[in-house]
Every structure is written in C-alpha cells, then in structure tokens.
Write a structure and sequence with these properties.
The chain is an alpha/beta fold and about 290 residues long. The protein has one domain: 3-Layer(aba) Sandwich (Pyruvate Kinase, Chain: A, domain 1). Helices cover about 60% and strands about 10% of the residues. Strands 3-2-1-4-5 form a five-stranded mixed sheet, sandwiched between helices. β2, α4 and β3 form a beta-alpha-beta unit. The longest helix is centred in the last third of the chain and has 83 residues. It is elongated, with a radius of gyration of 31 Å.
C-alpha cells in the first residue's frame, strides 16, 4: 500500500486540475453567451442586406446560384475546425464525414483552424490552403477565404453546428444554397434601372453585394462553428471536472485506508516494543 504522503501529493495535483477545468468551463460558458448573441445579430443583418439585394434583381436567387459557372471546373471543401485541441471529438467527426465524400481527382480542400489541419496531415489528406480561424469576439474578415473559393464551381462547407449546450452536430452546406436559406421569409420588392440611377452600374453593385453576402454567410458559419466548439469545450471540461471530483473521492478513501494502516502498523510496533520490554524486565528479575 502506498504511503499517505504520496497519496496526498497526488490528490493535490488532481485538485489543481479540477480547479483548472472549472476555470475553463466558466470561460467556455461565457464564450457561448457572447457568440450566441453575435449569431443572432448576424442573421438580422443578412436579412436586411438581402432585402436591398433582392430589390435590384427580378430573380436574385437564380442569378446568385450561377456563380462559379466560369470557374476552374473543380469543387472545393472548406473545413472550419478549432484552433486548439479542446473541442471534444467534433473535428474528428467532421473529417470522417468529409472523407466519405472526398474525391481528390475532382475536389480540393481548404481548412480553417490548426487542429483540423493537424488532423488532415495525420490522416495523409492533402489541403491546398490553410487559414487561421478568426477570433469570434472581433471583426471576422473572411475576404481571403472567399477569394480562394471563388474560382470553384461548387463550394461545400463543413462546420460544427450548435443545437444546445449539450448537443452539437457536424453539418455540411452548399455556400450558395446557404444564401437562399438565410433569405427565406424576407419580403422582396423590385428596384430597376428604369426608375433609379445606379452608380456604378447595376451589375457592379449586384456583384459587390453578392460578395458581401457570401462573406457574411461564411462569417456566420464561422460564428456557429465557434459556438458549437465553445459548447463542446464546456461539456468536455464538465466531464473532466466530474472525473477529477471522482478521483479526489477515491484518493480520499485511499488516503484514509493508508492512514489507518500506518496507524495500525505503528500501534503494532508499540505493542511489540512493550512486549519486548516486559520480557526483558521479567528475564532480569529472575
């Protein structure tokens, strides 16, 4: 049986670990609240932008889905992962889903997040571009990512979606279809060049707005992915804290057993010593 002082030192280390997981759990909970609010604001802003875009096109959805027709003829998969490794198993599940549909002959991969890039490298899956995930508590500039995806005929985005604090799922979307989904429920009215003067041309304005909407849709996807990762991190830290608490209970029981065993050993040593003294005294009195 181990000595009580050894058990006490290990228990102190577990207590430190439990305190750290509690801190990370609190930080993740705060991040969930902040990002969740930004996701809602992003959705409202997109709807407002769509109203103005759809007003200058008779059939905006048909036009916007024609993007990529003059591209390089290849498809691209965009993976939005975590920067660190504290996102549970979400990134691993996302890559497994992507692998089931990945064809290197027709498809390239762009990855956001160091953790996802590392996972792809470990599996021997090549990617052509890597970007760090923008911090969700700051302005998200996805212009470089959008520019990298524009030459492709089809853009698939894999990300992690927040369903609830205890549930997150891996999702795949078509970025252009994403624009249509976000525009549902928005009333459309029409502005034409017959009754409005456009500077520069109507086509240039529409092109710029489409790029803005693609950027906004992509930014919102990054926000949702960050929200899911924060929730997953919260759950992972909760599990770790519970496990640390269980270990502390086990260490406490082991410490008490070792302490009792040590006290019993000392008591036996005292009794044996007393017996030896009695025997010695009895032998000397003869």
């Amino acid at each position: 049986m181990r000595r009580p002082n050894v058990i006490e030192k290990e228990a102190a280390s577990i207590e430190t670990l439990r305190n750290l997981t509690n801190v990370f759990e609190s930080l993740a909970s705060t991040q969930v609240a902040k990002v969740k609010n930004k996701v809602e604001l992003s959705k409202r802003f997109f709807q407002l932008l769509w109203e103005h875009y759809s007003a200058i096109r008779i059939d905006p959805k048909k036009r916007i889905t024609s993007r990529g027709e003059n591209g390089n003829g290849r498809n691209v998969m965009v993976l939005i992962s975590a920067e660190g490794g504290l996102s549970g198993d979400l990134d691993q599940r996302m890559i497994e889903n992507m692998q089931a549909e990945y064809n290197p002959e027709t498809t390239d991969i762009i990855v956001l997040g160091s953790h996802g890039a590392g996972q792809l490298t470990q599996r021997g899956i090549p990617y052509i571009r890597f970007f760090q995930v923008p911090e969700t508590d700051k302005y998200i500039d996805v212009t470089p990512v959008i520019k990298a995806t524009l030459p492709y005929s089809h853009i698939s985005v894999y990300y992690e979606e927040y369903l609830s604090l205890g549930q997150q799922e891996v999702r795949k979307i078509d970025l252009i279809s994403r624009l249509q989904t976000l525009s549902e429920g928005v009333d459309e009215y029409v502005i034409t060049d017959k009754d409005t003067i456009f500077e520069p041309s109507l086509d240039e304005i529409a092109d710029q707005m489409e790029t803005m909407m693609m950027s906004l849709a992509f930014s919102q996807t990054i926000l949702e992915s960050g929200l899911a990762q924060a929730a997953s991190r919260f759950n992972a830290m909760t599990v770790a804290e519970d496990r640390a608490s269980e270990l502390l209970g086990e260490y406490k029981m082991e410490f008490h057993r070792a302490k009792r065993a040590e006290n019993d050993r000392r008591l036996r040593e005292v009794l044996v010593g007393m017996k030896k003294k009695k025997r010695a005294a009895a032998a000397g009195g003869r």
